[in-house]
Amino acid sequence: xxxxxxxxxxxxxxxxxxxxxxxxxxxxxxxxxxxxxxxxxxxxxxxxxxxxxxxxxxxxxxxxxxxxxxxxxxxxxxxxxxxxxxxxxxxxxxxxxxxxxxxxxxxxxxxxxxxxxxxxxxxxxxxxxxxxxxxxxxxxxxxxxxxxxxxxxxxxxxxxxxxxxxxxxxxxxxxxxxxxxxxxxxxxxxxxxxxxxxxxxxxxxxxxxxxxxxxxxxxxxxxxxxxxxxxxxxxxxxxxxxxxxxxxxxxxxxxxxxxxxxxxxxxxxxxxxxxxxxxxxxxxxxxxxxxxxxxxxxxxxxxxxxxxxxxxxxxxxxxxx
Amino acid sequence: xxxxxxxxxxxxxxxxxxxxxxxxxxxxxxxxxxxxxxxxxxxxxxxxxxxxxxxxxxxxxxxxxxxxxxxxxxxxxxxxxxxxxxxxxxxxxxxxxxxxxxxxxxxxxxxxxxxxxxxxxxxxxxxxxxxxxxxxxxxxxxxxxxxxxxxxxxxxxxxxxxxxxxxxxxxxxxxxxxxxxxxxxxxxxxxxxxxxxxxxxxxxxxxxxxxxxxxxxxxxxxxxxxxxxxxxxxxxxxxxxxxxxxxxxxxxxxxxxxxxxxxxxxxxxxxxxxxxxxxxxxxxxxxxxxxxxxxxxxxxxxxxxxxxxxxxxxxxxxxxx
Lengths: 321, 321
Description:
The structure is a homodimer. By secondary structure, chain A is of the alpha/beta class. The first copy, chain A, is built from eleven helices and 14 strands. The interface between A and B is large, with 40 and 40 residues.
């Protein structure tokens, strides 16, 4: 078993067009192949404000698959440690041997999550985008913009975060890295007012975006909710949207935005699409420039398998050079 | 993260009384503490005659918990590789950091499974045991006898296995290691006829032990069934038994002997006990010498956490010496 460190992985895996298309293929495979993706395994340790998740998926046609352990320990800031962590195994589907341990501390999850946002926006958002809004200013907000830049050539970002210091760093980093201008807003409503695409990247347990703020033509990607108590969108947004797309409906109805939407009786699940339905047919479901579209992303084991395979290939090629 | 090899683990962890009591405490904890043990995560790859299982359990009071990946790739013999494999992580329940990777290739699973058999026999079997019968002659048959020897001083073993070569090796190994005599039988009925305790350790998908063969006073431990298509016991055995004990009822009704028993309408689930119910009260439920008792063991994440904690402690102490 080969072991790769976070540093090696960060050096060899950076967001690019290939990764976005690999993650797109994960969604297509989920819809067209007999992918073996069991429900997320979850251990909650509320006494430490913590959770550990396990995801996996075997995708026929690949000789290996990933098994990922990811953790969120939200008291870690008191210990001077990062809140989130994780690692992935690449396991041979031929003989069961663990081929590689990708000890990435969650980096590959950040990359594959951002790539999913870009895939969703690519299929759902209007083509001509100038302004992108972001709620939240953590690592995932940065990665989402970086991936989105691969599919939409926006020039301006508006951002709101409750954490003032973080949002200033965010502005500096994004302006330098993506060569766009960033404006810090006082609240989420101002962000919604100016944005053609809105990305919510918070661990919020109550809506951060209200339906009355959403302008015609907006695409929204909500990627923060990944637990049965999290919610970023007022469920009326899903009700008013022309198109609602989930990464995987069975996951989103347990831990995504679909969950509160169904509970409130505001969403007809049979009208919700899965991302693989549209990527497999290469059809963009937006019917007009004024349509409102929503992507509800909870993160799938199939994405983990694709990014682990990609990372391993890069790392092994690097070792050969 | 510290990484320990199978060789280091085998050197430092061998079946003993302490391990049996640690595994007993796993069952007690399952019954008396708020153990967080999600259902087994399973990936089936039938095209390669293979399966991968993930088990975990957080036990309050311990600062770490195990997450185990175990695999069965039953075509591996064609590749000259062992069929089963696996590894365990020990993860901090305080900060989420992976503390150790126990790369044991399934050895610790063998040990904790054998220890569970010994715990069950200790609470269920008659005290005075001369003859133990085993169906199957693989690694787990050996470990079960080794662990059982810690709780019952038997002098003779009778064994039946379909694999002739394996059973001859088994006889030689067990006679040397446990200082008991071993007789190879032609079929399972002969084993049942002579045994006071019977242990079934096969991957069978149909019963290997029939109810009409079971003598009064017998204790049976069935540990082979761990999947929804496996079965070692004729379900009439569970029906006729005075006491039926599961490691965890919710697991056994999915992948243990309880499953076919319930499906056939032969077992009243409400009369089945969990091992933790009896270990926590230190009460032996056998009411007479002639009672028939059955333990249905599928293997639990709580056992994995206990054995991983024990192994880590041994390995770290070893490193200090």
